[in-house]
Specification:
Layout: H1 6-13, H2 27-34, E1 37-41, E2 45-48, E3 57-61, E4 64-71, E5 76-83, E6 85-89, E7 95-102, E8 105-112, E9 116-118, H3 121-124, E10 129-136
Antiparallel strand pairs: 1-5, 2-4, 3-4, 3-6, 5-10, 6-9, 7-8, 7-10
Amino acid sequence: AAATTATEAVAEAAPGYAVEDYNYPNADKILAEQNIVLKRGDGHIVLADCAGGDNLLQFLARDHEDVCFEVTADEGYLTLELPAVHGVKTDDSANTHLEMTAEDDQVEYDIPADTWKGVGESVDGREHVLVEIRVTN
């Protein structure tokens, strides 16, 4: 049997690398308390209190209190599940791109800065689930 050198033993005992998995922190707690499924993102679109400021992304959903997000960088993305969304107010990001699903269809919206817009259910009558938010400046 080959003898293990001190260098090999130290290398084997070294800690591994931290790997970011982009899963949303405290997602289980947010689901339980607010009935919002937050999946993955880059950390630049974060759930916020709607009373916390003017420059927020604000979503209107049937049978749900308004849901707001703060954009903390020039670009960001978040995947989620927020059912029955019918309106959005964008923040000052140059473009907010939304992806929604209704039955087996995917619907996309590009909305300019500081705009109230009807989306999803208010556009075609079907219940839409908001599944992705992307912002760019």
